[in-house]
Every structure is written in structure tokens, then in C-alpha cells.
Amino acid sequence: MESAWVKRRNFFSLYRTLGERFRALDSWSMYVITSYTEAEKAMGVKAQKKIAKIYNGMIKNLFLSVSRSQTTERKNLPHEFR
Q1: How far is the C-alpha of 50 from the C-alpha of 48, rounded, in Å?
Q2: What pTM did the predictor assign?
Q3: How many angstroms separate the CA atoms of 52 and 58, rounded?
């Protein structure tokens, strides 16, 4: 059974990869619905719109809207995730 730290690191890695792939696209927009609160930070983006009142049953989710012009550098990521 995986520890909570390993699961957190796996989620961070998944969203980091999503952000990297998104930055490779010139004029795209991305919409993400997730319960992972660190998704915006992991993807290295600043959401144009961020709605936090979406629920999947009892699980609180975030709705993030990001356009290509809103992407940021990954300099604010923890060292172990760079």
C-alpha cells in the first residue's frame, strides 16, 4: 500500500507533465476539474478562472480555466519536483 507522500508525489508528477504538454501548444485553452488542491502549482500555471464550489458527492473539486497566454514559469515549484 502506497503512503500518502508517494501518492501526493505521483499526483504532482502527473499534473506537472500536463502543464509541460500544455506549454508546448501555442494558442490552446485548458479546463481542469480536479480534487487535487496543488494542481495549479504543479502545472506551473495561473488559472484565469478558479471555481472551488464544485462537488463530486462529498469531495470538493476545483474548476480551473487556463489559456496559453496565462502560463507561468516553474520557478515556484519545490526543488524535488523540478
Answers
A1: 7
A2: 0.68
A3: 13
